[in-house]
Design goal:
By secondary structure, the chain is α/β, with parallel strands linked by helices. It is built from 18 helices and 19 strands. It folds into three domains: 119 residues, no CATH class; 243 residues, Alpha-Beta Barrel (TIM Barrel), CATH 3.20.20.60; 86 residues, PK beta-barrel domain-like (M1 Pyruvate Kinase, Domain 3, Beta Barrel), CATH 2.40.33. The strands form four sheets. It has an eight-stranded parallel β-barrel, surrounded by seven helices. A seven-stranded mixed barrel has the order 6-9-8-12-11-10-14. A two-stranded antiparallel ribbon has the order 1-2. β3, α7 and β4 form a beta-alpha-beta unit. The protein is globular and about 70 Å long.
Length: 477
């Protein structure tokens, strides 16, 4: 991405200021787009960040602030927003045209800092990450190679749907066909159903036993993981299975099993997510995760995603196991994760918004605003931020996405996301390669718009006036 800046008129500056309520709730400093872009740059260039922090520290009150100092190894993060708001509030916003108006910056020290980074800001291009989850639809050499050609930057293994005893074989299969990095995504502190005997249906008013034993579930017995979770469910607790497909109320414990009444009937599948209210305290990593991490390290895996990360301590727990040279992406998918975003972002190497699991704890209509808030906070801290869940969900069964999905992806990029994650689309979908190509196409369209565009360019030729391109979902296979 190429960043350039132009000075705004007073009313445009006010418009930028008016955007602050979206992210003020989680403690972000109001940041205009242009300086936020520089904050991103400093976050990705540690040496530049140190220089910026040094200049800010020696510059006196107009540049140095308590928030900009004393951050230890990540001292560069958080310093740029303070420089922006104290030295030239509302003067810049990212428009990607023109040059930084140094004369418009009243503070000579801030002007020197902007000049120092002008060349790099204009000439460095950041490649957006595309994380593709591998599964039954894509775990073969042909599709792996096609996904790499389509723009995949990381191949994700989701341990929530992977048998740990198959992990080493899967890693070696991927490494046989590509050098694209592999990320192991942990189960984390979550409750899931165990293995069910096909599609099991439970009716309203019936009672079921919730057990910890690894048995095959049926209409009367539902196994839950991790193994110690059943004994932590108090009477009166409510369980939502697979986004309210089934809702249960715990009546009590009998002979090591929890007896529950079905409040909302429906079908229960294997390995489906379960939300408990009140939520029991679970370990950061399951026994399965610990074994997966060991296997991953033996096979030279250096990227890990931490599911249900609630605080910085969870990141540090994983860091001790994977080593300082590994990359950790903390997944924000709970209320506590949102509340503790700042400390998590400082401890991790990146954050990932899992909109699906987050919507199990937060009302659905709040998810778009939370996404914007989290992205803006991560941008201000210089922490890479990724977005997952339902980006191109319709492409699990259809060759082309819906208009709403295309809008969602572009708007997510406009929000400031550094990367996108395909899950079911590439793991179990019918068109994994087409889905990856579509994301790459949308990213190119978005990045091309950063230099400005005309309406005529967007209208272009009629889709039927020329044959479909290699990346066009209409292309026959």
């Amino acid at each position: 991405m190429h960043y350039k800046y132009e000075r705004l008129a007073a009313e445009e500056s006010q418009l930028a200021t008016d955007r602050t309520p979206y992210f003020a709730a989680i403690g972000s400093v109001p940041v205009t787009g242009g300086v936020a872009a520089i904050a991103n740059l400093s976050g990705r260039r540690p040496v530049l960040a140190l220089v910026a922090t040094f200049l800010a520290t020696i510059g006196g009150p107009s540049l140095g602030t308590p928030a900009a100092r004393g951050r230890g190894k990540r001292s560069g993060r958080g310093s740029w927003p303070e420089i922006a708001t104290r030295s030239a509030p509302g003067k810049f916003i990212s428009s990607r045209t023109g040059s930084p108006p140094l004369a418009g910056v009243p503070d000579r020290r801030a002007r020197a800092v902007v000049a120092l980074f002008q060349y790099r800001v204009e000439h460095v291009s950041f490649r957006r990450a595309l994380l593709c989850t591998l599964g039954p639809s894509s775990l073969n050499g042909k599709v792996i190679a096609q996904l790499e050609a389509a723009g995949a930057t990381t191949f994700r293994i989701n341990m929530s749907h992977t048998d740990v005893h198959d992990l080493q074989r899967i890693i070696r299969l991927i490494q046989k066909y590509t050098r694209v990095p592999i990320s192991i995504d942990t189960e984390g502190a979550q409750i899931r159903t165990g293995t069910m005997n096909g599609g099991v249906t439970v009716g309203v008013g019936t009672q079921v036993r919730l057990v910890s034993q690894p048995v095959n579930g049926d209409a009367t017995t539902l196994p839950l993981t991790p193994g110690n979770v059943v004994e932590k469910l108090p009477p009166g607790a409510r369980l939502s299975i697979d986004f309210d497909s089934v809702v249960l109320r715990v009546e009590g414990l009998i002979d090591g099993a929890a007896v529950a009444t079905v409040l909302v009937g429906g079908e229960v599948g294997s390995r489906k997510a379960v939300t408990a209210l009140p939520s029991p305290r679970l370990p950061t990593l399951s026994d399965k995760d610990l074994l997966a991490i060991q296997i991953g390290r033996r096979n030279r895996i250096r990227q890990f995603a931490l599911s249900f990360c609630d605080d910085a301590e969870a990141v540090l727990t994983l860091r001790k196991l994977v080593g300082p040279r590994s990359t950790i992406i903390a997944k924000i998918e709970s209320r506590e994760g949102v509340r503790n975003l700042a400390e998590i972002a400082h401890a991790a190497d990146g954050v990932l918004i899992d909109r699906g699991d987050l919507s199990r704890e937060v009302r659905l209509e709040a998810i778009p605003l939370l996404q914007k808030a989290i992205i803006r906070k991560a941008n201000a801290l210089g922490t890479p931020v990724y977005v997952a869940t339902n980006l191109l969900e319709s492409m699990v069964i259809r060759r082309a996405p819906t208009r709403a999905e295309v809008n969602d992806v572009i708007n997510t990029l406009l929000d400031g996301a550094d990367g996108l994650v395909l899950a079911a689309e590439t793991a179990i979908g019918k068109y994994p390669v087409e889905a990856a190509r579509m994301i790459s196409t949308l990213v190119r369209e978005y990045e091309g718009s950063l230099e400005g565009y005309h309406i005529d360019d967007l209208l272009g030729d009629h889709p039927l006036s020329k044959p479909p391109s290699a990346t066009d979902p209409r292309r026959a296979t």
